[in-house]
Amino acid sequence: MSASVHAVVRARTAENIAVGDTIVRHRLASRVIHWAVAFFFFVCLLSGLPIWTPVFGWMAGLLGGLSVCRVVHPWAGLLFFASSLGMFLHWQREMRLEPKDREWLGPKVFRYMSFGEQDPEMGKYNGGQKLFFFAVSLGAVGLLASGLVLWWPTSFSQPIRVAGILLHDVTFILFAMAIVLHIYLGTAAEPGTFRSMTRGTVSAAWARLHHPRWYRDVRHADPSHS
Questions:
Q1: pLDDT of 152-205, one tens digit each?
Q2: How far apart are the first and last CA of the chain?
Q3: Half-sphere exposure of 174 (CA within 13 A, CB side)
Q4: Which is the most buried residue in 28, 53, 73, 175, by most CB within 10 A?
């Protein structure tokens, strides 16, 4: 069995380990949670856009019509929130913000986007990824709260209904923009990243370049590289 295949097998139950020149980044449970969140988000997207505006009415046909979308959307929203909650509970420890992560609220994020900075102390997740994680978690709460108002509008006063519509729309728009950026950074911007969420592994060169402190920690824990 080659080292790369062995790494994929190990990625079913383990992560943060080195198998030759391959690093296991995400075990199977992590990847299933990630793709569950992604799947339910896109179900919400496809079922919600035709309800939102007639411009996207053609999408309703993909799910069987507008009436089907109105049934599917709220239930998909509940499943999206449930999977997002599972993601939060699963990753909250690794996503704990460190003091230096605050720098990502300023110019550092723009230097990162322009590939103008490599931080030798970058751990498994950078500050931008951590902030995105918490933003997604907060956004999921916002979509749930506003979605419940829209699901049972007669149970709430007019001001709350208006606030619910506004919150749902704004949160969705910000969410959609963030997801596009997330997909770009995980594919074209940083080749080799996407397979960490499919096979669970990355190359040692990728880990050393993008997350050098994490790479050093993994190698340090590997007896064969001691």
A1: 999 999 999 999 999 999 999 999 999 999 999 999 888 999 999 999 999 999
A2: 24
A3: 15
A4: 73
| Domain membership flag for residue 126 | yes
* Side chain identity at residue 24, one-letter code: V
b/e per residue, 149-170, with b = 16+ CB within 10 A? bbeeeeeeeeeebeebeebbee
Measured distance CA(207)–CA(53) in Å, rounded: 43
Flag whether 13 is in a domain: no
The CATH number given to whatever domain includes residue 185 is 1.20.950.20
* DSSP track, 166-226: HHHHHHHHHHHHHHHHHHHHHTTSSTTSGGGGTTSEEEHHHHHHH-HHHHHHHHHH-GGG-
* pTM reported for the whole predicted model: 0.91
